[in-house]
Structure formats: C-alpha cells, structure tokens
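Lecture notes, continued. The same structure-token format from the folding unit now serves as the input rather than the output. Read the line below as a description of shape only.
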C-alpha cells in the first residue's frame, strides 16, 4: 500500500494554510538557523515524519516507510520546501512560530530531535 497521495495532500494542505498561534514568529535569520537539524514533524495529527535539513538547502524526509528528498529555502519570513515526489514537486511555504526547538505553523508541529 502506498501513502504517497495522502501524505502529499496533507503536506500541501499544511504548508499552504496560515501559521499556527503560539510563540514568536521566526525571522528569516532564525529560519535559516534551523539547519543543520533533524526534526520530528506531525502533520495535522495525520502523519508523523522525520525530516533532516542541511545548510546547503537539501531536505530529506521519511514517513510511513516512504522517503523523499528535496530543497528548502527561506522566502521572506517563510520556510519553503519543494519535495521531489511528495506534493508533486511543487514548492509550499509557511511561517513558523515557536522557540526552544519546538515550532508550529501551517498545520505542522515540529520538534528538534
């Protein structure tokens, strides 16, 4: 069974929705400081995944036995991600809020691991 379609739909919905409340909104500089880092990400309570961000803009992810790789960048005060397979390779952006390794935004709950 493949989870590509539900996972891609959940990621797209999350990254296109407004940022969640709680904590201060991260600046572009703070967003860039997320890399290098490895994160546990919960997508709207539907999908749990592990994501690794590298300073060179490469992002890798694993969820429900599937893996993908893509690129991340900061645009204004939003984190933008373009996966190779998930979300049909389209770029999605979201503002993040939080601190101390715990962030929220666009339906995502993110914790540094």
């Amino acid at each position: 069974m493949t989870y590509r379609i539900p996972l891609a739909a959940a990621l797209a919905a999350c990254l296109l929705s407004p940022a969640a409340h709680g904590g201060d909104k991260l600046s572009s500089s703070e967003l860039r400081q997320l890399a290098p880092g490895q994160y546990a990400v919960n997508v709207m309570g539907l999908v749990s995944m592990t994501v690794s961000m590298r300073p060179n803009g490469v992002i890798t992810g694993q969820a429900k036995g599937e893996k993908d790789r893509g690129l991340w960048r900061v645009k204004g005060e939003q984190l933008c991600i373009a996966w190779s397979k998930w979300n049909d390779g389209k770029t999605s952006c979201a503002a993040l809020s939080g601190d101390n390794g715990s962030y929220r935004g666009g339906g995502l709950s993110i914790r540094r691991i």
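Point for the exam: The longest strand covers residues 66-75.
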